[in-house]
Structure to design on (481 residues):
């Protein structure tokens, strides 16, 4: 272990920040002295790996330091815990001490079954609302624990893997961290569903190898054409689809692998949005696109903010192949999500949009809900529905996007735009046609709410609204009457 493996990952930090990271490394080394991981390695390997992950996400220096120190209190004997906490604060300041304590608290999860799940969720959401960096450290911690799961006693493995699929992976996804989500899922998959995992690997391995050789040829041809067209390219790379997401997709396609074309896809990263469309033009000029397979997530971002153009074409030798086209910034955000936020603020650039502003908006929303609730079981159930269910996005007449759960109605939409619009909602137009307030909105709909000052919420709305946010606002208005 060399602390330079951490500090080399972060650029543009002052020498005092680098010195602080080195100091934290020695501090962790001292307190974990003699402790071992299940694998028999020195314990320090673990916080070291966590800090490396956080540095790789370009997070701020205090978060990296807290990553190095995150188990110093947790692994201490009870009577020493308080003293260690104080020592961390003295040596590294309040912010680091706060982060370490937050991570420690998030680690003490004792309940079982459904209770444990809800308890986990509650802690996660409270932490996100307070300081999302605590959760980012927990996610990096979980990543390394998953990477070393095979050394853990067998009877614990499945539980940890299931928990990862249930809580940590969706959470990473919701924070826009696609890369981390994919890694967590793929690491958990063989432990949670060993039979299904082995069957799938047998099925795809050969296909994957063949496709990689094939894509090298496609890549060569494509690079030539992009060069001719004078489109500056940042990178063109074959991207192997995450195994677990492939498994999920297969379930939607009756387990027919032939219906899935993106086992491996080609990803084109360019400088700006204009070049994305220009590159799309080149791909379509070279190879005929499959109808209905062009998805423009640049113009219409996914609910979590994901942006890219996807297209599937009859490629070289007529082989069906998927392409993904995006800018460097979109690529960064798709991989790192909320963590990309720090990249941009650190370099003094404007705040990142897309996935990041989406995530930040989501966090602001959680904060608001949390203020309104008392942390009851009902509140948690609501969060599960509002946050993790399938999402659709619906446009306002001015082109803003409202993120809603599947099956949401114009009344849900109205409340999310503004509670006053919800409270005085008298009718709705969807795609310029009058519809009922119970109408199920679809992805990409444009919705306009007709408002009447005299109109008040009706009790009957409670029977069809989908979001708990709308429900709570309607109840509040009814009580006032
Ligand atoms: Mn840990």
């Amino acid at each position: 272990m060399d602390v330079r493996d951490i500090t080399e990952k972060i650029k543009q930090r002052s020498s005092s920040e680098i010195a602080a990271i080195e100091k934290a490394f020695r501090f962790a080394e001292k307190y974990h002295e003699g402790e071992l991981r299940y694998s028999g390695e020195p314990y320090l390997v673990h916080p070291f790996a966590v800090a490396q992950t956080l540095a790789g996400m370009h997070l701020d220096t205090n978060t990296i330091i807290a990553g190095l120190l995150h188990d110093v209190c947790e692994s201490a004997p009870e009577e020493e815990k308080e003293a260690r906490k104080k020592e961390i604060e003295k040596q590294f300041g309040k912010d680091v001490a706060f982060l370490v304590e937050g991570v420690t608290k998030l680690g003490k999860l004792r309940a079982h079954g459904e209770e444990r799940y809800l308890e986990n969720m509650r802690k996660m959401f409270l932490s996100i609302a307070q300081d999302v960096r605590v959760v980012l450290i927990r996610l990096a911690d979980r990543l390394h624990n998953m990477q070393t799961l095979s050394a853990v006693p067998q009877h614990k493995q499945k539980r940890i893997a299931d928990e990862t699929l249930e809580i940590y992976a969706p959470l990473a996804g919701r924070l826009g961290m696609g890369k981390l989500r994919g890694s967590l899922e793929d690491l958990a998959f063989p432990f949670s569903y060993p039979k299904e995992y082995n069957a799938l690997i047998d099925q795809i391995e050969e296909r994957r190898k063949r496709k990689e050789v094939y894509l090298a040829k496609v890549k060569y041809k494509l690079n030539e054409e992009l060069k001719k067209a004078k489109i500056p390219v940042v990178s063109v790379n074959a991207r192997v689809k995450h195994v677990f997401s492939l498994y999920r997709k297969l379930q939607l396609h009756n387990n027919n692998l032939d219906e899935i074309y993106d086992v491996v896809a080609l990803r084109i990263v360019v400088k700006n949005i204009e070049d994305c469309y220009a590159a799309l033009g080149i791909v379509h000029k070279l190879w005929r696109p499959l109808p209905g397979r062009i998805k423009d997530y640049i113009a219409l971002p996914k609910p979590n903010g994901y942006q890219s153009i996807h297209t599937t074409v009859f490629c070289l030798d007529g082989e069906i192949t998927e392409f993904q086209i995006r800018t460097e910034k979109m690529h960064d955000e798709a991989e790192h999500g909320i963590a990309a936020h720090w990249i941009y603020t650190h370099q003094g650039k404007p705040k990142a949009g897309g996935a990041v502003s989406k995530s930040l908006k989501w966090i602001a929303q959680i904060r608001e809900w949390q203020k309104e609730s008392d942390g009851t079981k009902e509140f948690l159930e609501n969060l599960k529905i509002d946050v993790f269910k399938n999402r659709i996005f619906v446009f306002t007449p001015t082109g803003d996007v409202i993120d809603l759960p599947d099956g949401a109605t114009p009344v849900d939409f109205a409340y999310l735009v503004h509670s006053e619009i919800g409270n005085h909602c008298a009718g709705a137009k969807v795609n310029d046609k009058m519809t009922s307030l119970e109408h199920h909105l679809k992805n990409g709909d444009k919705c306009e709410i007709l408002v009447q000052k005299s109109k008040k919420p009706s009790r009957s709305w409670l029977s069809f609204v989908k979001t708990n946010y709308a429900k709570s606002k309607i109840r509040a208005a009814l009580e006032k009457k």
